[in-house]
Write a structure and sequence with these properties.
Length: 91
Amino acid sequence: MATEVSENSKFTLSLKSLISIIIVASSFIGMYYSLSMDIQRAMELPKSEISRSELDLKLELISKTVMSNADKLNKMEETVDKIEERVYELK
C-alpha cells in the first residue's frame, strides 16, 4: 500500500480529532505559562541564608556522627559474635 504525498493529496480531519488537537495544544500552552510564572516567583525569593562556614560545620558534624555510628555498629557486631560463641559453647 504505497501512499504518495503531493500537491493533489487531500488531508482530512474529523471534528473530534480537531478538538483533541486544540485541547492538547492549549494544555501545553497553559503548562508553559504556569511553569514560567513559577520560575519567575522562584527567582524573586530571597537567597539562602546558609553561609559556607555553617555548611562546612554541618557537614563535619554529619561526618562525625556517621563515623561514631560506624564505631558503635562494630562494637555491637563484636558483642553479637561473643554471644553467638557462648551460645554454641552451651549447646
